[in-house]
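Quick board copy: two proteins, each given as sequence then tokens.
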Amino acid sequence: MKRFKFPSPFTVLYIIIIISALATWLLPAGSFDTLAYDSDQKIFLVKGEKSVNLPGNQNTLDSLGLQVELSKFEEGKIRRPVSIPNTYNEQEASPQGLKEILFAPIKGIYESIDIILFVLIIGGFIGVFQHSGALDKGVGLLAKKMEGREKWLIIALILLIALGGTTFGMQEETIAFYPILVPIFLAAGYDLIVPVAAVYGGSCIGLMGALINPFGTIIASDAAGVSWTEGIESRIAMLVLGSIVLIWYIVRYADGVKKNLETSILHGLKVKNPFEHKGTSVAAGKMTAGTWVLLGLFGLTFVVMIYGVSSLDWWFEEMTALFLLAAIILGVMQRASESDFVAAFVGGAKDLLGVSLIIGVARGITIVLNDGLISGTLLNEASNLVSGTSPLIFLPMLMVVFFVLAFFISSSSGLALVSMPIMGALANVVGVPTEEIVNAYLFGFGLMQFITPSGLILPSLAMVNVPYNIWLKFIVKLLVPLAILGALILIVGYLV
């Protein structure tokens, strides 16, 4: 018998889409009423069994059990509909059949087109830069300078990525770093697991300990009715201690691989370097003034991206335009012909086409669950599961509940808006500070991002040709101490 080969990311996602569709036949359909704010008419729009318009004032929010300040809606901090507590109603089933299963990835690609274009343009940008040869020389020089001190590169990278995650939710943007970092890490003597563990792991720790992430912490706090500054001590503890745990885990593994490649979890799997065909060399080469200028412009592009997202409210449209402009400038500086520029750009985009499609197919899972009307059912069952428990048990259990819910709802803002009003109201019944509910959400959501196929882990693994099952084998030993750490921080936060 041939040895079993784990399926590709596309197959894994399609299997999950099928399972999600089957769940719509087995679970009862239901949903919570939702409330949205019309800033033009200054009224609330309630949608449910009976859709009504209500006065846009604080009394309306209080009467619905929503502990949210009216200003959050008026200032546009809450733009999407939020769930209304105690309004769950079973609905007529909407089972998803073969047609819906077939259309789910297509709809997912439509809904993810902004991210897909961003990734493709980044691929073109990387292709143009690699055409200059500056990357080969820069990698070789860095490898030479860091010889004997490679672990500090891992530590610095984790801390920088975690900083981006904790401030502006940096995760999708990390896709851009793999083509640059993989040659550097391989030149340092590590395997392909190390760069994705450092980059993607750092972003997940940043999400777990998100201090001011507007897409997680601030939206969740606003929806729960508390200031984002409340409970920040627990998030600082998670960010610091979680980063230490992650660094210890990856550096220990990386040191072992560097000393003996046979200790690599990829040993014997014949996993190819995805960027080997680019001809990247570890030889330093001659660093000319032109090379330094190209490297400087390359690095400046990422600095501008981070500044734009964190300070100028940029999102995918602006980031995509930035990388397109940078690619053109790089081509002009290289004095590349029009045909060479187009060939390099299209070639680079083609390298990330598979990654882009994976992002779209993953979105299809959420579409099936939402169209099948079982997302509300899952949320209702989750809230019933943790109600009635003591606070010391409630918070760790709630973290686990959010961990599970994040598998089905991979959007941080989406999960916050549908769950926080309900779980926030439940906190008052149990006697738990609402800010600790927000922290439980952040810890559970960030923990699931390490492994959920509907998130960005499959596109990230596709960038480095690492099979999903091998990643699970590698990362599961890290999730246990992080989960224990999160539970302890929540308990201490409640007691203090």
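And the next:
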Amino acid sequence: MGFLVLGFVSILSATFALVLVVTRRSPFQQSIDRRMSSIQSLAVNQFGTGPNAEQLLKTPITGRFSRLEEMVKRYQFSQRLQTHIMQANSSTTVTILFLRSLALSVAGYGTAWLFTRFVVLDIAMAIALGSLPYGILNFTRSRRINAFNAVLAESIDMLARALRAGYSMVGAIEMLSENAPHPAAAEFREIFKQQNLGLPLRDALLQLLDRVPSLDLRVLVTAILVQKDTGGNLAEILDRTVCVIRERLRIQGEIRVHTAQGRLTGWILSALPIVMLVLINVLNPGYSSILLHDPYGQKLLYLCAAMLMIGAFVIRWIVNGIEV
């Protein structure tokens, strides 16, 4: 029981120390915060905006841990997580995500400690389960961005047809918000709402890039902003943009087909030693106990784990090194 408590305290202390070290603000950022606070207070005194005006602003979701949210939101790590949550269109918060990760880490460490009291394996299980909420968030974020990219070309075609039919830019965006496929409709609906509230089109499009960090969308936004500054036939520019995006998607599909064997090989080579070790110990219990208890066996396990991670990283770097 003492080892379990010691391991829990060690993981908890190391997690908080790492978060504080990584996310602490630099002296330069602190000076900027002080200057911005002074400017904000000066604006409040000059224009007479008080608490009633702040109620008109859009407030973020805080949930049941609002005080803890206020404590952690000033750190850069928390701000990056909040950006990923916004891009994944998730209803969770940074505090809830952190608490889930901490609970899973403790549960993973305790479960591993019950079956094998090998500290490295216990910590590895805690890290694996603790990173599960972040992995799910990144998966949701990637899936939403990919879904947006899949319907972006169709949405641009619809936008170009609306402009040819005589719609204004705002009217064409409104039509997209009603007829475009999901999730593009929701994002263009947000742009239309911001336009109705008086936000300039440039700012609304740049905020769209923050919500959907897509290279294809960046091409579209750049084309619209350049046309707005220099003039020209926007419908024709959008047609050429659609051709570029569709050609890029076609090349990406061909690359994924040609690299599918490499990705599958990486997964098999990385999982095969672990699966075989588990199966052998299930069929013959105690077969690899010397690796867990003997000092030389433990060193071999460390070496094997390091080589597996290096091999998986190299395969992933080779397969994903081609960009379009």
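Board note added afterward: Residues 132-164 form the longest helix (33 residues).
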